[in-house]
Amino acid sequence: GDDDDDESSLSQGEGDRLWITGFSLTKNRGELHTVDVETGTMSYVNEMTARAIKWPNEVTSIPRQQYYDVMNQQTNSSSSSSTDGTFVPSSSNDDDEQTCLEDALLVTDGFLVPGKDKGGLYVVRNPTNSVTERRVCLTGVMNLQGDIINGESSDWFYHRAVWMDMTGDGRQSILAARAKLPLLKGGGGGKGGNSQDDNNNGTLGKGQLVWLERPMPHTVDERTGTPLDVDGTVFDPFSPANTPWKLRVLDEGPDVMFSVADLDPQDDTIEVIASQFFSKKLSLHSIQLGREPKVTFRRVIDDRCGAAFSSVLADLDGLTTMQQDADNAAQYPMVVDSGSTVVSLKRNDAFSHLLVTSHECSYADGSGESEERLASTSDTEDFESEVTVSSASSSSAVSSSSAQSKIDGGSLFAYRVPTGGKDAWKSKPWTRSVIATGFKVQGQLSNMINPGAPGFVYSFFPTREGGMGSDKKWHRPLIGLSGDCAESAYILRPIEEDTIEAGEDRSTKYALMCEIKCSSTVGSLAVG
């Protein structure tokens, strides 16, 4: 069929639920299903929600906003206060507070196919509750049928959004990338189907990095500390009176996936590293936080990476372990949001590399023939895969300016964060290594519209102990890949080589551990 299970998200804390999204070219509705991890009970959102969110991409939890009363206290100049100066949001970043979640979901919606290209950002309150579930669009006004009707805002689709204190006052606003594309124009180059020249002329895909500001309560109850709206009722940032949220454009270019880092913990900026799918580049955007967030520095990391899709932060050097022992932990680049639904790095963990997939449309030989291929699991001892990993290549580490001769179809790249100075990440090359290449699209009917491979990349550890093994030594994580239109999932394992060629990055040496053939599109993976 043409159904495509995509993003999987495992909520944290008590009552864990696995959320799975799905979408279809032929159905006028999306799929949002959940599985109770403890009991195995399955449920789904109601029909109104499913019809409003026609192409759900990523699902994420919603942190509960904490407020405290600051009456008789002097607020600092960087905080946003209410009209009578009686409160500011709690700005605590404690891990315990981050795990205090609403019974709600933030869902990114939309894609470039007919009828699905008018996307948005949605909040689903009390999902799967037959009585109290409701949905609200943060990027537009909906009619009774659930369609967004307020003009320009409905012309964009969203793949990723994260909660972020953009204003420095504790309010959890939203940082997101969005894209628009004239319907099915161009050809080749993965799902985007546009050439670099076309994009530079502005005739095809367009992306923007945006933020949505969380509204402020009008005041706070002096006795209880309850935030109140202008009419005296309990303040609800997701009520119709307070939506849609105010949206501002930070920069042009980012369109699908991104991660967020703090490459200089001593300053007041965060860095967004974005895979620009339609313009085929990898970019960095440094955002100064405050009452009016703005991009103060930008650079292109790689403009020869192809149709960049997934981009996640990874620690392949064991910096997290070194960080715990270091007197000056702030010397390492730190994670703000790793960019992955499989969390192996938490906020403020150190990282050494950026993992990026190049989502290309290169067909497998003979894949157009009509043959039945059953799902199977294979390992490196008894099968041959079309995918080539770094251990099978004589020299797989290349810089972003090197020739592309070693790349065959879709690929997985690793970029090392530059070292050797406070601002090395601004000026020095991010050395690129090819971890795996040769991902090919299977020519099935369901893969005929904007096909490409591979999809999302993940780093994870095989045990709850993380990278520290039973030998008391740190070990690199495994790497997972959703093949997308390659119709397989892949697990790569780290290998140690006694000798490497000059310029190669030892930390990016991996071998194919297994390929799981699924005979259908593999949109994403979940690890638990």
Model description:
- About 15% of the residues have low confidence.
- It contains 5 helices and 31 strands.
- It is globular.
- The longest helix has 7 residues.
- The strands form 8 sheets. Strands 20-19-18-17-22 form a 5-stranded antiparallel beta sheet, with no helix packed on it.
- The protein has 528 residues and is mainly beta.
Average pLDDT number: 81
Strand content: 35-45%
- Quaternary structure state of the chains depicted: single chain
N-C termini distance: 27 Å
| Structure summary, number of beta strands | 31
Overall form = globular
**Which residue ranges are poorly predicted, with pLDDT under 50 across at least 5 consecutive positions?**
69-87, 94-98, 183-203, 368-384, 391-405
What structural keywords apply?
528 residues; mainly beta; five-stranded antiparallel sheet; 31 strands
Provide a concise account of the structure shown.
With 528 residues, the protein is mainly β. The chain has helices at 47-52, 95-98, 196-200, 319-325, 424-427; strands at 3-10, 17-24, 31-36, 42-44, 56-63, 67-69, 87-89, 101-109, 120-125, 134-137, 157-164, 173-180, 206-213, 219-220, 227-228, 246-252, 258-262, 269-276, 281-288, 294-302, 308-314, 334-337, 353-358, 376-379, 388-389, 410-416, 432-439, 457-460, 478-482, 488-494, 510-517. The protein has a 5-stranded antiparallel β-sheet, with no helix packed on it. Strands 21-23-26-27-25 form a 5-stranded antiparallel β-sheet, with no helix packed on it. Strands 24-31-30-29-28 form a 5-stranded antiparallel β-sheet, with no helix packed on it.
